[in-house]
Amino acid sequence: QVQLVESGGGLVQSGGSLRLSCAASARIYNINAVGWYHQAPGKQRERVASSDMSGTIYYADSVKGRFTISSDEAKSTWYLQMSGLKPGDTGVYSCNVRYGFRYDLWGQGTGVTVSS
Question: What is the CA radius of gyration of the chain?
Fold first, then answer.
């Protein structure tokens, strides 16, 4: 079973930047979309960015202009570049890969704490 492993989280001051990575343990075929999700403390998980194979990119309003999703397909790795971080960005970030139109892979998540 292919696994996703996120990394890059940590503690950062307000206004700072982090780059999260999501690496697959093996190549994933028939990928439909890749997404990054944020779960703030005590809140439901929400999608903050995603990219599908048609080239459509989505950003939640709360992160537009601050976050950028990208990928290195040769490394089966996806990234979320986060800048202008705010305390409200604190939480656990997880990546999701949808493949074969009905299968989902999730990573374990990486924690981000933004201090004011």
Answer: 14
Asked whether the predicted pLDDT for residue 115 surpasses 90, the reply is yes
Contact 107, 94 (CB under 8 A): yes
Distance (Å, rounded) from C-alpha 12 to C-alpha 6?
A: 17
Q: In 3D, which of 90, 59, 44 has the Cα closest to residue 68?
A: 59
Closest CA to 103 of 55, 39, 34: 34
**Which residue has 């996120």 as its token pair?**
6
Residues above pLDDT 90, as percent of the chain: 96
pLDDT for the residue 73: 86
State the sign of the Cα–Cα–Cα–Cα dihedral 62, 98, 4, 77.
negative
Closest CA to 19 of 98, 97, 72: 72
